[in-house]
Amino acid sequence: KNTPFIYENTVNINGKVDKDKKGELKDALMEQIEDSAMVRSNTKLPWPKFPFVIPGPVINRPNPFDTVHVIQSTYNMHYLLRNKGYRSNAVTFDSSIKIVKDQQRVKVNYLVNTGNVYRLNKVVFSLSDSNLQRIALENSKKSLLKPGDPMDYSKVNDEINRPINIYQNSAFAV
Fold it and tell me: Most CB atoms closer than 10 Å: which of 42, 80, 125, 153?
């Protein structure tokens, strides 16, 4: 009672994001919200009560509103966007409070400006060992990175590991 608590979180994305990727990006950004800034809800059955009521979401032990956790969530979102190639992004938030009986419900709106996405210009395999270079070029068609793709650091890391696995599984011994 009489303590502001997180009632709702929203993410609004502004920027040049492909329409088919926007929902996926929004979900990923929502996952970056700190546990202490999340809405914890479940469905309770009001059974047996008359007249019968359709069950709805209920917030048990809600998280108190604390800007420290919301600010940390903005940092988490910022770093996620940087890793996905949106190097010049900006994430801010605003909050509003709504009084309902003895409840102080806080709605937090995260405002995400993605900026431009950095894209790969070309992908080059350049190794000093001629045998490793040959194997890399033979398997370059299977590369996870393609010119024009966003600069996604998790994909870059996966691509670094892909040839290593090929080298380890090949007959070529280093």
Answer: 80
pLDDT, averaged per 10 consecutive residues of the chain (174 residues), comes to: 88 90 93 86 55 63 90 96 93 94 92 93 88 87 89 89 84 54
Task: Please give the structure tokens belonging to residue 51.
Answer: 């007249």
DSSP string, 126-149: --SSHHHHHHHHHTGGG-S--TTS
Distance of CA 44 to the CA centre of its chain: 29
Q: Is 110 helix (H, G, I), strand (E, B) or coil?
A: strand
Residue type present at position 108: V
Question: Residue 63's closest CA among 99, 92, 34, 43?
Answer: 34
- pLDDT of 67: 93
Parallel/antiparallel/unpaired status of strands 56-59 and 41-44: antiparallel
Rounded Cα gap, residues 172 and 26, in angstroms: 44
Q: In what order do the strands lie in the sheet with 103-113?
A: 4-14, 103-113, 90-100
What is the per-residue pLDDT for 56?
60
3-state helix, strand, coil in the chain (%, to 5): 35, 25, 40
- Give the C-alpha separation, 152 to 63, whole Å: 33
